[in-house]
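input
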Amino acid sequence: MPVSLPVHGRGAAENPTNRFEKIDVVMDPDGDCAPAEDGVKTIYLRDSTRKVIAHNDSPDVGFDWSINPYRGCEHGCIYCYARPTHEWLGFSAGLDFETKIMVKVDAPELLREELSSKKWKPATISMSGVTDCYQPVERKLEITRKCIGVMSEFGNPFGIITKSALVTRDIDILSEAAKRNLCVVMLSVTTLDEEVHRVMEPRASTPRRRLEAIAKLASAGVPVGVMLAPVVPGLTDHEVPAILKAVREAGALSAGYVPVRLPYGVKDLFEAWLERHFPDRKSKVLNRIMELRGGKLNDPEFGSRMQGKGVWAEQMKSIFEVARRKVGIDEGMPELTREHFRVPKSARKQMELW
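output
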């Protein structure tokens, strides 16, 4: 893939061919189709899905049910394993993924219907199984806030994973749910280096604001943990002890990690990004990833895809575990309860009208 110039405020600078499409549009740099020099604006498209709770059958993912209020993610994290899912919609895994956001405006109403159904058996639902539920437009639309409000009303347990400090906006709902042991929150912290963050996760909350969010949630009685996901060998892996120390001081109860995953077109996007921003480290980073992934840049096998293989994988695990024990992150997250689940009277009456 040819390496493009950076696009201000974006992780990717390319829109590679959708692997499902037979026709590719090539931009003419001198013609009317040339991309705007001042960057690419985000557009929001209504997602007309009629079902909002998705079932996960991957054996190495820690949840069975999830809700994704948005498809695509404006945070623009260059390493995001979810980028190829945008190709299912006819878009590119590159700039399209972070600039063409599908919005499930009806998600709270659909969730209320599904939780009211006799088919639903109460179980923990993960917010952000694929893309971040607290990306920038959530500040205005409040779809995630309304969804967790519905789950709290029904007494259905839920977990949240996010890179955004915006989660603290909803502390009122989260703290009340936590009193009934209904929710946990996981913050993703990948680096403490502001410069690396700026180009790697351009529209996600800064590391400082994520640490502040952990502290605010913990102070409000909301169980909060951290995922170092992904750890990029040769770029961010040396930060693992410092990150664990910082998140523990902020109030994190648990921590986990996942080595970087680069499925499908993410491999090429990531390689072009390294050439653009870290050309001096490119070979080292890619070689370490290949050593973790059995000689390739991606390993799709269940189990090993979340841990890696070989000497570098063992070293990463050892460093993480030693650092985790040293700072005392060993309490773990509470097991959520389903005992409070009830279909509210208002929902029953509405179902009777249908």
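quick obs: The beta strands are 43-46, 54-55, 65-67, 70-71, 100-103, 125-127, 158-162, 183-188, 224-231, 255-259.
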